[in-house]
Amino acid sequence: MAVDTDLPSNAFVTVAGHSASPWILHVPHASAEIPAAVRARILLDDDELGAELTAMTDAHTDLLAGCIGERVKQGRPWSFINRVSRLVVDPERFADSSEVMNRVGMGAVYTLTSTGAPLRTDDEVHRAWLIAAYFEPYSRALAALVDDRLSVTGRAVILDVHSFPTSPLPYELYPNDQRPTFCLGTDARHTPSQLVDAAQAAFSGLGSVAVNQPFRGTYVPLRHYGHDDRVESIMLEMRRDAYLHRDGTPNRAAIERLAKAAARLIDGYDRGRRNV
Q1: Potential cystine with 235: which of 104, 185, 211, 231 (Cβ 3.0-4.6 Å)?
Q2: In this predicted structure, what is the pLDDT of residue 66?
Q3: Which residues contact 188 (CB under 8 A, 6 or more apart)?
C-alpha cells in the first residue's frame, strides 16, 4: 500500500499528445496512492486496505495508455491520468443523488468497500472536503483538456481505459452479465455506432467483445455531457487476465498486443472520418 503525505497538488496529470490529435486516453483508476490526510479517515487496517486496493485498482492501465500513445501513427493521443486511488474519490461518478452507485456506498466518495464493509464514516464535512480538494479540480482540468481539443481540432474523442476482475465483486450491479475479454461501455448520445464498430473490429481478434456488459457507460465531462455532440467517448474495460499475470504484474507481450489494437482503433477511426 502506498501512502503519500502531500496534499492534492499533483493528484492528476495531463500528458501532452500531438497538437492535431482529438484523442484523450482517460485513466481514472490505475493508482493505489492514498494521501495521509485521506488514509487517516479510512477505517480499514493496512492489510484490509491492501486487499481492497488490489480488488479495486485497474493496475497498469496507465502503462497501457503510454504504450498506446507510442504506437498511434497519426499523432500521439493526449492522456489524462489520475494519480490517486479511486478510494480517495471516484472521478467518474456523479457527485449528487443521481449516481446509481450510491446504492452500494460507492458514489463519488466511497463509504463501503467492494464487499460491503464500512470504508469510512459517512461524514458530510469530510465528504465536502474530498469533493472540493480532489473531485472538482479533476473534473475542471479534464473538461479544460476537452475544451482545448475542441478549440484546436473541432472534436474530442475519449478512450476511457479500465479493467475488471475475472469473477464479479460483491458490489457489482450486474453480476450475471457476460464477462468477456473486452467490455465496450457506451453512451446513447456520445458514442457513435461507427466508434463502437471500430472498437469491436480492433479488439475482436484478441478475445471476446461485449457492449455494456458487465459495465455500462463511458466518461464525458459534465460541462459537455448531454449537449455537445462534438465530444465522443467509449469505455474500454479489459478483463485483467487479458493483460496481467496471475500475480498482478503486467504481461508485457499482452500489453503490446492490446496497445497495437487500440492504436489501430484510433488510426482507423480517424481515417474513416476523413474518408466520409
Answers
A1: 185
A2: 98
A3: none
HSE-CB for 266 with a 13 A CA cutoff:
29
CB 52 within 8 A of CB 44: yes
pTM as predicted: 0.94
- Convert the pLDDT of each residue in 168-213 to its tens digit: 999 999 999 999 999 999 999 999 999 999 999 999 999 999 999 9
The overall average pLDDT reported for the chain is 94
| Cα–Cα distance for residue pair 80/162, rounded to 1 Å | 13
Following DSSP, what letter does each residue of 68-99 receive, concatenated?
HHHH-SSSPPEEEEE-S-TTT--TTS-SSTT-
Q: CA–CA separation, 17 vs 13, rounded Å?
A: 13
Handedness of CA 211, 233, 235, 131 (dihedral sign): negative
Q: Tell me which of 3.40.630.40, 3.30.479.30, 3.60.15.10, 3.90.1200.10 is the CATH number of domain 2-275.
A: 3.40.630.40
